[in-house]
C-alpha cells in the first residue's frame, strides 16, 4: 500500500501544474474482507467517520454491484491523493476501539504469506469468536445467511447480555443487567455463546477447576537449572530477543525454570505467555502456574466465547500477568509482553490443522523478535527443527541431563514380539505381565500405553481376508464395545457390524488388533485385584473427567492406568514404578517422514513417567522392530543419539529441517476429478519452476500426484502432491505464481499446507 501511495505522489509531482485542480485529496482506508475477495480494497472515508476509522477496527463497506454491506478489517489508513476512478465510501464503523494492535496487523500479514493463507482468514483466526461478535446494530442478510456462530449477528438484547456476562452473574442477574427476559439468556446458552455460566457464576467455574496442590518454590536450583535460568534472564533484563531451548529429560526441572523466569518477568511489571500442547492434558502444569502466581488466565477449550472475551479483556487491560493456553493463546493481546514459553515444543498440536495452517512456534518467534523478548522452548525430545536451529547457532541450547533430586531414569526392557517366547494370548507378553506384578507387589502404580482406542482395531474375514471398511472413508472400522459398533476413526460414522463377510459371505468375521478397550479387559482379567481405569478420547468426553481420573490415580485409588498418548504427557506421579508400551511400532510405519521421530518422542516421553519416586521404576517396551534406531534410542533414554542418526538422513533427502515442503490435498466426489485437478496443479507447478529457474540444485522436486494415504474421507476422494525445495520463501512464491488466477472447477476443493506436520 505504501509503495502505491508514493508511486502516486511521484506521478502527481511530475504532472504539469494545471492538472493540480483536478486532483482531490482524501482519507483512504484499506480494508481486508474476512472471506470472499482476497485482495485488500481501498475505500474513501467520509468526513463524519474520519475520527473513528483506524487500523485494527472493523468497518462496514459496500461490496460488488449490489453494494451489499460487509464487515471488513481496516488494516491501514492514509491521507492521500485520490485515484481517477472514484472510490466507494466506508458506510460505518463496527468496533468502538481497535481489536488488533499494529503489531498484530503486521503479524497476520506475515502469517498469510508464510502459510499461504488469506489475510482475512488469518485475521479471523487470531481473534476469538467472542471478540469478533458484532453488536447487532445493523442487519446484514449475507452474514445471517452464512449462519455460523462467529459471524452470526446478534440482536441488541443478546449483545447486551454478552456485555453483561463479562463479569460473573447468574442468569437472572444477567437478564436484569441487560434489561431483557431470561429467554434471551437461554437462547445464548443454546447457541453456545454463553456457558451454563449464564446460570452459574464464572468464579464457581474457576473453583470447580479444583484446588491446586501447593507447589513450593524450591530452596535452590540445580546447577543445570541455574544455567538455564540465567540464559533466559540475560536477554529478559536487556530487553532483547533470543530463543533458548531447554533440552532436559523428563523431571529435570524445566517447569521450575519457566516458573522462575516468569516470576522475574512479573517483577519487571511485564506479562508472560506460556503455551502448552493441550490444556486438558496438562492439568499439573497449569496448576503449578496457578498456585505460584496470583493472576493467571488459563485459556482452555471449554471457555465459552463470552468467557474467552472476558479473559481477553483482562489480559489486554494488563491486569493479568500470566497467560497459559494452547496454540491460539499466542495471540493473547498482551500490552506489556516480556516472555514467551512453549512447553513440549515438539508436539504437533502447535500446528493448526485447518486454515490458516500456522505453527505456533514460528508465530511465537516472530512475536518475540518483534517485541524484543526471549522465547523459551522446552522438551525432553525437541523437534528436529529446533535441534537444527541450535546446531546452526541461531538458538541457544541449555541441557538439563539429569533428574532433580538425583532420581535415576528407569531401566528399559525391550520385548521382541517376533520371538515366540514373548507371545501370549493377549496383548500383554509374559515379561510385561511380570513387570506389572512386580510393581503391584512393591506397592507401586502402573501406566500402560497403547495408542489405539476402541476394542479391536479392525474386523477381518478369516476366509477371504476382507476387512470391514467405513462406507464413506478408505479406512477400516474399529470395533467398539459395548454394543458391537463399528466406528470409523476418520469420520466418526457408526455402523452396525455385519454378521457375515460382506465380500465372500462366510460367517467368519474375526476381531483383529488390540485397542485400549480390549487391553483394559485383558488387564482386568490378569490382575483382578487391581483397580484399573482407562484414559482415551472415548472415556474422556465429559468435562472434568480427565482431572477426576488423574486425581484418583494420584490419590492411589487406582493401581493401573491404561491409555492412549493422553497419558504420555507431563504427568508426574512418584508412585509409578512400571510403564508398559504395548505396541511401540504402532506409528512407526506410517507414510510420514516424521514417523520415526514421533515414535522416539512418544516412547521416550512415556518411559519418563516411570520411576520418579524413591522406589525407582522400570519400563517394558513391546516391539517387532527392537533394532530400529527410534526404539533403541528411547530404550537408552538417549534421544540425542536418535537425532544424530536421523538428522543426516533428513539432510541427504533435503527433508525438513533442511528443506521446506508444501503439500496440496485435492478433494472431489468423483475420483477422476480429484486426480485430474492434482495433475493440473503439478503441471502448472513444473512450468512455474521452469520459469523461475528452480531445479535440482535448489532441492526442487514435485512428488505426485498420487492418492493420499487416506484415499477417501467423508465420501470425498483425496489426491495429494508435494513440492519440496531448500528455500521455503522461493517455494512459496512458486506456489503463488503457479496458482495465481487459477479458476478451480466447482466439483473440486483443494487446500495448501505449508510445512505440514500431518501427511495422511
Ligand atoms: P520437568 O518440567 O523437566 O519435567 P519439573 O520442573 O516438573 O521437571 O520438576 C520435577 C519435580 O522436581 C517437580 O516435582 C518439581 O517441583 C521438583 N523440582 C524442580 N526443581 C527442583 C529443585 N531445584 N529442587 C527440588 N525440587 C525440584
Ligand atoms: Zn469414515
Q: Give the helix tally.
A: 23
Measured between the Cα atoms of the first and last residue, the distance is: 39 Å
CATH topology of the largest domain: Rossmann fold
- How are the strands of the largest sheet arranged? 8-9-7-10-11-6-12
Total strands: the figure is: 27
In percent, how helical is the residue content? 25-40%
Q: Judging from the principal axes of the Cα atoms, what is the shape?
A: globular
Domain module tally = 6
- The CATH architecture category of the largest domain equals 3-Layer(aba) Sandwich
The overall pLDDT, averaged over residues, is: 87
Main sheet characteristics? 7 strands, parallel
Content of β-strand: 15-25%
Q: In CATH, what is the class of the largest domain?
A: Alpha Beta
The CATH superfamily name of the largest domain is P-loop containing nucleotide triphosphate hydrolases
Structural class, please?
alpha/beta
Q: What oligomerization state is this entry in?
A: single chain
- Report the uncertain regions: 1-19, 136-144, 146-152, 197-213
Radius of gyration: 28 Å
Structure description:
α10 runs parallel beside α11 (254-267), α19 (595-607) runs antiparallel to α21 (639-653) and α22 crosses α23. Residues 1-19, 136-144, 146-152 and 197-213 have low confidence and may be disordered. The protein starts with a helix and ends in a 6-residue tail after the last strand. It folds into 6 domains: 6-124, 3-Layer(aba) Sandwich (GIY-YIG endonuclease); 130-199; 223-309 and 320-400, P-loop containing nucleotide triphosphate hydrolases (Rossmann fold, 3-Layer(aba) Sandwich); 411-454 and 514-650, 3-Layer(aba) Sandwich (Rossmann fold); 458-512, no CATH class; 660-754, Alpha-Beta Plaits. The radius of gyration is 28 Å and the shape is globular. The chain is built from 23 helices and 27 strands. The chain has 760 residues and is an alpha/beta fold. The strands form 6 sheets. It has a 7-stranded parallel sheet with strand order 8-9-7-10-11-6-12, with helices on both faces. Strands 13-23-22-14-21-20 form a 6-stranded parallel sheet, sandwiched between helices. Bound molecules: adenosine-5'-diphosphate and zinc ion (ZN). Adenosine-5'-diphosphate binds at residues 215, 218, 220-222, 225, 248, 250-256, 404-405, 572.
Amino acid at each position: 500500500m505504501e509503495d502505491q501511495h508514493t508511486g502516486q505522489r511521484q506521478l502527481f509531482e511530475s504532472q504539469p501544474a494545471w492538472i493540480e485542480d483536478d486532483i482531490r485529496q482524501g482519507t483512504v482506508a484499506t480494508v481486508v474482507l474476512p472471506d470472499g475477495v482476497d485482495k485488500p480494497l481501498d475505500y474513501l472515508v467520509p468526513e463524519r467517520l474520519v475520527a473513528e476509522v483506524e487500523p485494527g477496527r472493523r468497518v462496514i463497506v459496500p461490496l460488488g454491484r449490489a453494494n451489499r454491506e460487509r464487515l471488513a478489517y481496516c488494516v491501514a489508513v492514509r491521507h492521500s491523493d485520490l485515484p481517477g476512478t472514484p472510490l466507494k465510501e466506508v458506510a460505518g464503523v463496527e468496533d468502538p476501539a481497535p481489536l488488533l494492535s499494529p503489531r498484530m496487523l503486521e503479524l497476520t500479514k506475515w502469517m498469510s504469506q508464510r502459510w499461504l493463507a488469506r489475510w482475512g482468514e488469518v485475521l479471523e483466526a487470531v481473534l476469538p469468536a467472542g471478540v469478533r461478535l458484532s453488536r447487532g446494530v445493523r442487519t446484514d442478510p449475507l452474514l445471517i445467511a452464512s449462519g455460523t456462530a462467529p459471524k452470526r449477528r446478534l440482536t441488541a438484547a443478546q449483545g447486551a447480555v454478552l456485555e453483561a456476562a463479562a463479569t460473573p452473574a447468574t442468569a437472572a442477574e444477567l437478564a436484569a443487567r441487560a434489561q431483557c427476559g431470561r429467554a434471551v439468556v437461554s437462547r445464548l446458552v443454546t447457541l453456545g455463546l454463553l456457558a451454563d455460566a449464564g446460570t452459574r457464576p464464572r468464579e464457581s467455574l474457576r473453583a470447580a477447576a479444583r484446588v491446586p496442590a501447593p507447589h513450593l518454590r524450591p530452596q535452590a536450583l540445580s546447577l543445570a537449572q541455574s544455567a538455564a535460568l540465567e540464559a533466559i534472564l540475560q536477554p529478559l533484563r536487556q530487553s532483547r530477543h533470543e530463543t533458548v531451548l531447554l533440552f532436559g529429560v523428563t523431571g529435570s526441572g524445566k517447569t521450575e525454570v519457566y516458573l522462575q523466569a516468569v516470576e522475574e518477568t512479573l517483577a519487571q511489571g511485564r506479562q508472560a505467555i506460556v503455551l502448552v500442547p493441550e490444556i486438558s492434558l496438562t492439568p499439573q502444569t497449569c496448576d503449578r502456574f496457578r498456585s505460584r502466581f496470583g493472576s493467571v488466565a488459563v485459556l482452555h477449550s471449554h471457555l465459552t466465547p463470552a468467557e474467552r472475551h472476558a479473559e481477553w479483556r483482562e489480559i489486554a487491560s494488563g491486569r493479568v500477568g500470566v497467560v497459559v493456553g494452547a496454540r491460539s493463546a499466542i495471540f493473547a493481546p498482551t500490552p506489556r509482553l516480556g516472555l514467551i514459553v512453549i512447553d513440549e515444543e515438539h508436539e504437533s498440536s502447535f500446528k493448526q490443522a485447518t486454515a490458516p495452517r500456522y505453527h505456533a512456534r514460528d508465530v511465537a518467534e516472530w512475536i518475540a523478535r518483534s517485541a524484543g523478548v526471549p522465547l523459551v522452548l522446552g522438551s525432553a525430545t525437541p523437534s528436529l527443527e529446533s535441534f537444527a536451529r541450535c546446531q546452526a547457532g541461531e538458538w541457544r541450547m541449555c541441557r538439563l541431563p539429569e533428574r532433580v533430586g538425583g532420581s535415576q531414569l528407569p531401566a528399559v526392557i525391550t520385548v521382541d514380539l517376533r520371538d515366540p517366547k514373548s507371545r501370549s494370548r493377549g496383548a500383554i507378553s509374559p515379561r510385561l505381565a511380570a513387570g506389572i506384578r512386580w510393581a503391584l507387589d512393591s506397592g507401586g502404580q502402573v501406566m500402560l500405553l497403547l495408542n489405539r482406542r476402541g476394542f479391536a482395531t479392525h474386523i477381518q474375514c478369516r476366509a477371504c481376508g476382507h476387512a470391514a471398511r467405513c462406507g464413506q472413508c478408505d479406512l477400516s472400522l474399529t470395533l467398539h464395545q459395548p454394543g458391537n459398533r463399528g466406528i470409523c476413526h476418520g469420520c466418526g460414522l457408526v455402523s452396525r457390524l455385519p454378521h457375515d463377510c460382506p465380500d465372500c459371505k462366510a460367517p467368519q468375521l474375526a476381531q483383529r488388533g488390540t485397542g485400549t478397550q480390549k487391553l483394559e479387559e485383558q488387564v482386568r482379567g490378569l490382575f483382578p485385584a487391581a483397580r484399573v481405569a482407562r484414559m482415551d478420547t472415548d472415556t474422556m468426553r465429559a468435562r472434568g473427567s480427565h482431572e477426576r481420573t488423574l486425581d484418583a490415580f494420584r490419590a492411589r485409588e487406582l493401581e493401573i492406568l491404561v491409555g492412549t498418548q493422553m497419558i504420555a504427557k507431563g504427568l508426574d506421579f512418584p508412585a509409578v514404578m512400571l510403564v508398559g508400551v504395548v505396541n511401540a511400532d504402532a506409528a512407526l510405519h506410517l507414510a510420514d517422514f516424521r514417523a520415526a521421530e514421533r515414535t522416539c518422542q512418544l516412547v521416550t516421553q512415556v518411559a519418563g513417567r516411570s520411576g520418579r519416586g524413591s522406589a525407582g521404576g522400570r519400563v517394558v517396551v513391546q516391539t517387532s522392530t527392537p533394532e530400529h534406531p527410534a526404539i533403541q534410542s528411547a530404550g537408552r533414554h538417549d534421544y540425542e543419539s536418535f537425532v544424530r542418526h536421523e538428522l543426516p538422513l533428513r539432510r541427504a533427502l533435503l527433508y525438513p529441517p533442511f528443506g521446506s515442503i508444501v503439500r496440496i490435498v485435492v478433494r472431489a466426489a468423483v475420483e477422476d476429478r480429484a486426480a485430474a485437478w492434482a495433475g493440473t496443479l503439478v503441471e502448472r507447478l513444473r512450468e512455474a519452476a521452469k520459469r523461475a529457474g528452480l531445479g535440482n540444485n535448489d532441492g526442487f522436486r514435485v512428488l505426485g500426484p498420487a492418492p493420499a494415504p487416506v484415499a477417501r474421507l467423508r465420501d470425498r476422494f483425496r489426491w495429494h502432491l508435494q513440492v519440496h525445495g531448500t528455500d521455503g520463501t522461493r517455494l512459496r512464491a512458486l506456489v503463488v505464481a503457479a496458482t495465481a488466477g487459477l479458476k478451480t472447477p466447482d466439483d473440486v476443493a483443494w487446500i495448501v499446507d505449508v510445512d505440514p506436520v500431518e501427511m495422511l
